[in-house]
């Protein structure tokens, strides 16, 4: 069964893109068929997956404007998964999508564009990940309307919880009005530094607060994860043994165990 997971947090720099690219590669390493959709005009997931964002012909932009399907826009990424790339052009999509006449219905349609595009390729993938921008705009809404669940990366630092209530509130509204089936897949602790007591404290605090909504896997601060994007590679391909690559392999296994156990046992 296909599972579409949006990776979102309106807080910037918390590890959304790092998670999107490395989790995609780890799932692919486990022989799962993966599509990663970059819906951030920064195009970081695109570059991190080894695709030059300035050299692409089709992108998620053309998909959102209804000019192409996901099949036309997808490319093979480094790491054994498919990618729908994005670049700065996407920043204009939000305006273009709703600037047509009949704004009300257009907006409604526009919000569900990505969902419709995903439905058309659903039989070709096991997991679809969507890397969201650090904002709660129409692009993020599209992702959240298309998703079964949302994975929220959180940096293990003092302000980790700040903004989280905004996000939870937005998710609640979205559930009520647009996507009643959306669930929180889990909160993921990222950039964890076990030499820092603050990191430990925050990680423990998150555990108290969120209990079973928290992934058991914790992503450590690891230089390979930071270096990998400049090589256009997931960390798994740059240095398989690195702590960062191994942590994302563990996260993939945690997700697989969660969603596929029922399938394996009939
Ligand atoms: P944005 O909100 O701008 O989209 P983001 O939430 O996608 O940011 P990333 O781009 O994944 O965050 O990470 C921010 C920076 O931190 C990047 O330079 C990335 O390489 C680095 N980084 C992310 N995770 C780790 C980690 N576990 N260890 C070391 N560096 C990391
Ligand atoms: Mg990002």
Structure explained in plain terms:
The chain is an alpha/beta fold and 266 residues long. It has one domain: 3-Layer(aba) Sandwich (Rossmann fold), CATH 3.40.50. It contains 13 helices and 8 strands. β3 and β4 form a beta hairpin. The protein binds adenosine-5'-triphosphate (ATP) and magnesium ion. The site of adenosine-5'-triphosphate has 20 residues, from α1, β7 and α11.
Keywords:
single chain; 266 residues; alpha/beta; Rossmann fold; 13 helices; 8 strands; 17% strand; binds adenosine-5'-triphosphate; binds magnesium ion
SSE blueprint:
Blueprint: E1 3-7, H1 16-29, E2 34-38, H2 44-48, H3 60-64, H4 70-73, E3 75-76, E4 82-84, H5 93-98, H6 103-111, H7 113-119, E5 127-131, H8 138-146, E6 149-155, H9 164-177, E7 183-192, H10 197-210, E8 214-220, H11 223-227, H12 235-238, H13 243-264
Parallel strand pairs: 1-5, 1-6, 2-4, 2-5, 6-7, 7-8
Antiparallel strand pairs: 3-4
The site of adenosine-5'-triphosphate has 20 residues, from helix 1, strand 7 and helix 11.
What percentage of the residues does DSSP assign to strands (E)?
A: 15-25%
Sheet with the most strands? 8 strands, mixed
The neighbouring-strand order within the major sheet is 3-4-2-5-1-6-7-8
Helical amount: 40-55%
What name does the CATH topology carry? Answer: Rossmann fold
Structural category is alpha/beta
Uncertain runs = none
In short:
The protein is α/β, with parallel strands linked by helices and 266 residues long. The chain has a single domain (3-265), classed as Rossmann fold (3-Layer(aba) Sandwich).
